[in-house]
Write a structure and sequence with these properties.
Blueprint lengths: L7 H23 L7 E6 L9 H6 L3 E6 L3 E6 L3 E8 L2 E8 L3 E6 L4 E4 L4 H9 L10 E5 L8 H9 L8 E5 H7 L1
Antiparallel strand pairs: 1-2, 1-6, 3-4, 4-5, 6-7, 7-8, 8-9
Protein name: Stringent starvation protein B
Organism: Methylocella silvestris (strain DSM 15510 / CIP 108128 / LMG 27833 / NCIMB 13906 / BL2)
Length: about 180
C-alpha cells in the first residue's frame, strides 16, 4: 500500500473535533435541546488545560465531565471551551482545548466520538513535553451501520453508565478503512 502523504487520519480527526466545537457552540448560544446531554473526557495534563490544583490532584491524567443539568458560563472559541461545574459542591471553572478531548458522547442520540493522536503527532507532542496517546479517532455509528464495532470501546461506554435508545457500534477509522 502506498504511503499516506496527505495524512487523512489527521484531517478526519480535525473535522470530527469541529463537530464537537459546533455542538458546544450551538449549546452555549441556545442551551440544551430535547434530551441531549454530553459526556466529555479529556486529558487533564494536556497542553493548555486549565483547572484547579485540587482537580488536577484528583484527576492527574484524565477526567470525564457531564454537561446536562448543572453547568454555567459555557463559552466556546476556535481552540477550546470553558465551563463552570460543581465538584462536591465546590464551583470550578475548566478550560479545555479541543486537542485535549479524548471522547465526546451524546447518549440521547447514541453518538460517540473517540480521539487518539497518531504516532507522528504523538512524537512531536512528546518532544514538546506533552504526554499523549497514539492511534486514530473512532466514530460511533447506529446499529443499522454495516460496520462491526469495537467491543472494548463499547464496554468503556457502558462502564461510564452512558445509555442510549439503541445499541451503538463504535468503529475506529482504521477498521473502517480496512472495510472499504
Amino acid at each position: 500500500m502506498a504511503a499516506d502523504l496527505i495524512r487523512y487520519d489527521i484531517l478526519v480527526q480535525e473535522a470530527l473535533r469541529g463537530v464537537v466545537r459546533k455542538v458546544l457552540a450551538d449549546m452555549a448560544r441556545e442551551g440544551l435541546v430535547g434530551e441531549h446531554h454530553f459526556y466529555i473526557t479529556f486529558r487533564t495534563n494536556g497542553r493548555g488545560v486549565r483547572l484547579s490544583a485540587r482537580m488536577r490532584e484528583l484527576y492527574p491524567e484524565e477526567m470525564t465531565i457531564i454537561l446536562q443539568h448543572q453547568f454555567w458560563d459555557l463559552s466556546v472559541s476556535e481552540h477550546a471551551f470553558e465551563v463552570g461545574l460543581s465538584f462536591k459542591n465546590v464551583p470550578e471553572m475548566l478550560l479545555v482545548p479541543f486537542d485535549a478531548v479524548t471522547r465526546f458522547s451524546d447518549p440521547a442520540a447514541g453518538f460517540d466520538l473517540e480521539f487518539k493522536l497518531d504516532e507522528a503527532v504523538e512524537t512531536s507532542a512528546n518532544d514538546a513535553g506533552s504526554p499523549v496517546e497514539g492511534d486514530a479517532p473512532a466514530l460511533s455509528l447506529p446499529e443499522k451501520a454495516s460496520l462491526q464495532g469495537a467491543e472494548s470501546d463499547a464496554k468503556v461506554i457502558k462502564e461510564m453508565n452512558v445509555t442510549s435508545a439503541g445499541e451503538d457500534k463504535i468503529v475506529s477509522i482504521d477498521k473502517f478503512r480496512k472495510k472499504t
